[in-house]
Write a structure and sequence with these properties.
305 residues; alpha/beta; 7-stranded mixed β-sheet; two-stranded antiparallel ribbon; 15% strand; globular
């Protein structure tokens, strides 16, 4: 907007007539100046109605963003979403069945940082319906069966703990029994420090279970989203028959700041982004969220044949 138009707009809000013809012919003019509303009568704008893209600062309503599958309509930035949204995007309507929700985390070590681990878990469970950092569901994509294990970053950073390892292991057993492909949607900051060695053991546990999928010739797809770090990328995140990712996703083991401080060198532009990893052979392809379901359908058809 030109500066003159901005001045006219501000003047119109203040009850003064703007100078441009566009402003003069406006359907609304404030005739009475100095209209005041008492604090008690002022209405607050409801939270969560609008959202701003962190990449290009484009502002739109949440409903508009939801219709775009949480992809910025201006710059194609992929907003972080949870398992509910991914399940809605990928599965055929009415086919999804969530599994293994009865498995819950426990504070075996009596771990305390800023607060006890047990208290932290209870607070999260009271505020959200998410029971742990990963949810497993069986369903269909265009009538083709698939099991999807999707991480939720809002549950302690999508951290890898004993429950995540056990749920993935049981998902693999289900896939082996039903000859069903498996996809893991990765979104994690790494291993959960509150479970110490128990969390680190999950790297070997899950990797071992996935080798059974390979022996049974059942496909496993690793779908890396923003961010996928730590033990996830060091194990099953990179063990897929196909390793795919969303555009612009941060994928790596240690963060860019830590690496830069360690090697004392500037990192290449776009370092650890999915496009950088694709160029260097770590990924098979990058798929836009709007094309995800159709691409998965194509892959399942190819695997079945």
């Amino acid at each position: 907007m030109a500066p003159q138009h901005e001045e006219d707009f501000d003047a119109n809000l203040a009850g003064e007539e703007g100078q441009s013809e566009e402003t003069k012919s406006s359907w609304f003019k404030r005739i009475k100046k100095g209209i005041l509303t008492s604090t008690a009568e002022k209405k607050e704008t409801p939270e969560g109605l609008w959202t701003k893209c962190p990449e290009c600062n484009f502002i739109c309503t949440m409903n508009e963003l939801r219709e775009q599958l949480f992809v910025c309509p201006k710059c194609n930035y992929h907003h972080r979403i949870g398992s509910d949204e991914y399940f809605d995007i990928v599965f055929d309507q009415g086919t999804m069945q969530v599994m293994f929700e009865n498995i819950r985390s426990k504070d075996y070590l009596g771990f305390t940082d800023l607060k006890p681990y047990e208290k932290r878990l209870q607070e999260i469970w009271s505020k959200t319906d998410i029971t742990d950092s990963i949810r497993v569901a069986a369903g269909k994509i265009n009538d083709q069966p698939i099991v999807i294990a999707c991480m939720d970053f809002e549950f302690i950073g999508g951290s890898l703990g004993s429950v995540m390892g056990e749920r993935i292991s049981r998902a693999v057993d289900y896939c082996l029994d039903h000859s069903t492909p498996l996809m893991i949607i990765c979104k994690s900051g790494g291993a959960r420090m509150m479970e110490s060695a128990f969390s680190l053991m999950q790297l070997a546990k899950v990797s071992g279970k996935l080798s059974q999928m390979t022996d049974a010739r059942i496909p496993y797809i690793s779908f890396l989203t923003d961010p996928s770090f730590g033990g996830i990328s060091a194990s099953f995140g990179m063990l897929g028959d196909l390793n795919i990712a969303e555009p612009g996703a941060l994928i790596g083991f240690a963060g860019p700041r830590v690496i830069k401080e360690t090697i004392k060198k500037d990192l290449p532009e776009g370092f650890q982004r999915s496009e950088f990893l694709l160029e260097h052979g770590f990924l098979d392809f990058i798929v836009d969220r709007k094309e995800l379901k159709e691409r998965l359908n194509t892959l399942l058809v190819l695997f079945n044949n």
